[in-house]
Design brief:
Layout lengths: L10 H6 L1 E6 L6 H6 L3 E6 L5 E4 L5 H19 L10 H6 E2 L2 E2 L8 H14 L4 H8 L3 H9 L2 H13 L7
Antiparallel strand pairs: 1-2, 2-3, 4-5
Helix pairs in contact: 3-5, 5-6, 6-7
Length: about 170
Amino acid sequence: MSVAHPACLPIDELLAQCDVRHERRSGPGGQHRNKVATAVVLTHRPTGVRAEANERRNQTENRVEALRRLRVRLAVELRGPTRGQTSPLWRSRVTGQRLVINPAHDDFPALLAEALDALVAADYDLQAAAAALAITATQLARFLRHEPSAWLRVNQGRRQCGLRPLH
């Protein structure tokens, strides 16, 4: 049985693996911001990956954003084994070699993790990874560009493999 990538876990399961801290932050927001600990800092215990959010004056909204950031960071930083075939989630998002996903959607981090795993398995060859994912190389590049840290990670990997960076 394969273990799910942390970016794919349901929110409650992911939170169970995290240390949650609430802090005060300075900056815009008036007195309320300085009196109430609205900043949320999440640390994924098994990996040490950390994310935080403090833009809002509402702790609940900051928690939602911190969770999203944590899932994206986990997707970018952790590589899992490839399964040899795409996941049911991935297949549900592919229509005629096009990947249909909005970066704001809850599935984005899980799909990002799967795409990056495929790229690593293909030694950062965009064509080979796209073929394994049943989409075009253009679709894969467009998808990866939605997350700047993923795009940077892919280009670092390509350089290490002696490939030219993607533009």
